[in-house]
Specification:
Blueprint (H helix, E strand, L loop, with lengths): L2 H24 L9 H4 L12 H10 L6 E9 L1 E11 L7 E4 L6 H14 L4 E5 L15 H9 L11 E6 L6 E3 L3 H13 L3 H16 L7 H11 L5 H6 L5 H16 L27 E5 L7 H18 L11 E6 L2 H4 L4 H14 L4 E7 L7 H4 L4 E4 L7 H12 L8 H7 L4 E5 L11 E5 L11 H9 L3 H5 L8 H50 L15 H7 L1 H20 L1
Parallel strand pairs: 3-9, 3-10, 4-7, 4-8, 5-6, 5-7, 8-9
Antiparallel strand pairs: 1-2, 1-12, 10-11, 11-12
C-alpha cells in the first residue's frame, strides 16, 4: 500500500471514530445506548425532517409504563423500529379520531386498534361499512411483502383472529338483527332520519309526549303513523288542539315524511325484540373482548339511518351504564365509521345531544373513535373532547380541500414537520399521530408507519359468516319479530268505537228521517184517498160528460191533477222501501 493510500485509510478511520463519539454524546445518560443493530435504523444514518434530539423527544413522549396499544414506528426518512408509537390503553376512553382520504388505510387502522383491544380484554363495537372489516374474524395470510414491512417497523407479525359476533340492522344482511322501538329511539333521532326541520322536530317531540301521556306504546313506525293519523282525524282533532304547538299542517308534513320513510323499507329497523346494548360488553371465557360488527352493506343506500342508529346505540349505553370514573382499560370501545353522515344537516339540539353524550360517556368506561375523511366533518364541540388523533393522507385538489388542509394543520401542536407538506405526501398505511399521555397531556406529533393487522386483509367468506350467525345463541332471542299490542291496536279500537258510535247516531238519524218521510207519505196517501172519494160521488149537474159514463176512478187518475197525486204517492212509497 502506498503512503497516499495509507493516509486515506487513516483519515477514513479517524472520521468514523469521530462520528461514533459524537453519536454517543447525543444519547441522554438516562437512556441506554442502543445496540448497533438498532442504531442502523436511527436518524443518524438516514436523512429525515427531525433532528436526533427531536427523535429522542418523541421516543420519550411515547414511552408508557402501563399497557398500551402499539400503533407502529416513527418515520424519519425511513421507519425507526426502535421508536415505537403507542396509545395508553387507559386513555382510549378519552376518545379518538381516525381521518383521511378514501383509500389511505383508515379501515386497516381501525382493524389494528380493534385486534389489540380485543386481545387486551376490551370489547369492541364497529360498523363494517364496506364489508372488509369482517376479515378480523379470520387469521391473516403471510407473504414476503407483508413480512418486509412488519420487520421494518419492529412488528413480530403472526396470523391471528379475533372473536367476532355479527349484527345487522333489522335483519337486512348477515347477522343478528338489531331493532329499536320508536319510543326508545326518541324524537330527536327520528327527526334526523326523517330530515325534519327545527319546527317539525319540535312538533314531533310533542307527538311523542302525547303518546307517552296517553299510554300509547310506540313500538314500530306503524304506531307513530297511527298516532299522527289519529291526531289529524275528526275524532282526535280535539286532542291535537290541546297539544298547543302542533298544527294540523305540520302533523300532515311529518306523516307524509314518515310514510315515505316506511315505503323505503325502514319498517324493519323498528320493532321488538329491541336489542340489549349490554351484549356489546361481553368477553370470552379466555378473557378476550368480543368484537361486535354491524354489517352495513344491506343498508348502504340509507346512510342517515345507520349513522343515526349508531348514535342511538351510544345513547342507550349512556343511559344504562353505571359511572365508573377512570379505569385501567375501557369497558367498551365504539368505532363510529363514516361519522360525517351523522352530522350532515343536524339540528342544534341534535349536535348538543351528541356533544353531551361524548363528553359524559367516558366516565361510564366507553371510548369512541370517530372515523371520517377530514376533521372538519366533526363539529368543533365534539373534536374538543378527542384525546387521540390518527391522521392519514389528506388531498388538496380543490380550494375546499386546501382550506380543510390548512384548518387541520392549525389544530396540531408545534412539531419539527412541515405538516402542510407531510399530510399530502403520506403513503398508504402511514399517519400523523398525537395522543393523550398518561398524565392527560398531548404527546409529540409523530409521523408513523402503522402496524399491519394480524387478521385477514380480505373479508371473511360469506359462508363462514352465516355459520357464525346460525350458531349464535342471540339469534333465537332476537331473530324473530314480536308484534304485541301497541299504539296502532289501541287507537284502532278507539277509532272503531268512534266509528260505531257515529254509525249508531247516523242510524238513529236515518230512522227518524225515515219515520218522518213515512208520515209524509201516509198523509199524502190519505189526502189522495179523500180526493178520490169526493170525485167518485155523482155530480148534481145537468151537463153530461163522456168521462162520467165510464169508470169514475179511472177518469180521476187519468186527469192531470190525478197523475200528479199518483206520482207523489209512488215516489214516497218506493223511497221508503228503498231505504228499508
Amino acid at each position: 500500500m502506498t503512503d497516499a493510500a495509507a493516509l486515506v485509510e487513516a483519515a477514513k478511520k479517524a472520521l468514523a471514530d469521530a462520528e461514533a463519539a459524537l453519536a454517543a454524546e447525543q444519547v441522554p445518560t438516562s437512556q441506554p445506548v442502543p445496540p448497533p443493530a438498532a442504531s442502523t435504523s436511527a436518524s443518524s444514518t438516514t436523512e429525515g425532517p427531525l433532528s436526533a434530539s427531536q427523535v429522542e423527544t418523541i421516543r420519550a413522549g411515547y414511552t408508557f409504563d402501563a399497557l398500551a396499544l402499539e400503533m407502529g414506528a416513527l418515520v424519519n426518512g425511513d421507519p425507526l423500529s426502535d421508536v415505537p408509537i403507542r396509545i395508553p390503553i387507559a386513555m382510549v376512553n378519552r376518545h379518538g379520531l381516525v381521518a383521511g382520504a378514501t383509500g389511505t388505510g383508515k379501515t386497516k387502522t381501525l382493524q389494528v386498534l380493534a385486534e389489540q383491544l380485543s386481545a387486551a380484554g376490551v370489547p369492541v363495537f364497529a360498523a363494517d361499512i364496506k364489508g372488509d372489516l369482517s376479515g378480523i374474524a379470520s387469521p391473516g395470510e403471510s407473504n414476503p411483502k407483508l413480512l418486509q414491512r412488519t420487520d421494518s417497523i419492529g412488528q413480530h407479525w403472526a396470523a391471528a383472529s379475533s372473536p367476532t359476533e355479527y349484527f345487522t340492522l333489522g335483519g337486512l344482511g348477515t347477522g343478528v338483527p338489531i331493532r329499536a322501538t320508536v319510543s326508545s329511539f326518541g324524537p330527536l333521532l327520528m327527526s334526523k332520519v326523517l330530515g325534519l326541520n327545527d319546527t317539525q322536530e319540535s312538533s314531533l317531540s310533542l307527538v311523542f309526549h302525547y303518546a307517552d301521556s296517553a299510554g300509547l306504546p310506540l313500538v314500530d313506525l306503524s304506531d307513530l303513523r297511527a298516532v299522527l293519523q289519529w291526531l289529524t282525524s275528526d275524532e282526535g282533532k280535539a286532542e291535537l288542539k290541546n297539544l298547543g304547538g302542533l298544527s294540523s299542517a305540520t302533523a300532515g308534513v311529518i306523516l307524509r315524511e314518515l310514510i315515505g320513510f316506511a315505503d323505503q323499507g325502514a319498517d324493519v329497523f323498528f320493532g321488538e325484540p329491541e336489542i340489549d346494548t349490554s351484549l356489546f360488553l361481553r368477553t370470552t371465557a379466555e378473557g378476550k373482548g368480543i368484537v361486535s360488527l354491524l354489517e352495513i352493506p344491506g343498508v348502504q343506500d340509507k346512510p342517515a339511518v345507520f349513522s343515526t342508529f349508531l348514535m342511538w346505540l351510544l345513547a342507550d349505553l349512556y343511559n344504562d351504564l353505571p359511572e365508573v370514573g377512570d379505569i385501567d382499560k375501557p369497558k367498551l370501545v365504539f368505532f363510529f365509521d363514516e361519522a360525517h353522515l351523522l352530522f350532515n344537516g343536524a339540528s342544534k339540539d341534535f349536535i348538543a345531544s351528541i356533544t353531551q353524550t361524548v363528553r359524559l360517556i367516558r366516565s361510564k368506561g366507553v371510548g369512541i373513535f370517530f372515523v371520517t375523511q377530514t376533521p372538519k366533518d366533526v363539529p368543533s364541540e365534539v373534536l374538543a373532547q378527542i384525546g387521540s388523533r390518527v391522521q392519514h393522507q389528506l388531498r388538496a385538489h380543490t380550494p375546499d380541500d386546501a382550506k380543510a388542509l390548512k384548518a387541520t394543520v392549525s389544530t396540531y401542536p408545534t412539531s419539527g414537520y412541515d405538516l402542510k407538506e407531510v399530510l399530502t405526501t403520506l403513503a398508504t398505511g402511514e399517519a400523523i399521530i398525537t395522543v393523550m399521555n398518561e398524565k392527560g397531556a398531548p404527546s409529540p406529533v409523530a409521523w408513523t408507519r402503522l402496524r399491519a393487522p394480524q387478521g385477514s386483509m380480505s373479508p371473511t367468506p360469506p359462508a363462514t359468516m352465516q355459520a357464525t350467525v346460525a350458531a349464535s345463541p342471540l339469534l333465537s332471542q332476537f331473530g324473530t319479530v314480536v308484534d304485541r299490542e301497541s299504539a296502532r291496536e289501541i287507537l284502532a279500537v278507539k277509532m272503531n268505537a268512534a266509528a260505531a258510535a257515529e254509525a249508531q247516531v247516523g242510524a238513529q238519524a236515518a230512522a227518524a228521517q225515515q219515520a218522518k218521510e213515512a208520515a209524509r207519505v201516509q198523509a199524502e196517501y190519505d189526502k189522495a184517498a179523500r180526493a178520490m172519494e169526493r170525485t167518485s160521488q155523482p155530480r148534481t149537474t145537468s151537463r153530461t160528460s163522456t168521462r162520467t159514463q165510464g169508470n169514475p176512478i179511472g177518469d180521476i187518475f187519468g186527469s192531470r191533477a190525478g197523475q200528479t197525486v199518483v206520482r207523489e204517492v209512488l215516489r214516497g212509497i218506493f223511497s221508503t222501501l228503498k231505504r228499508r
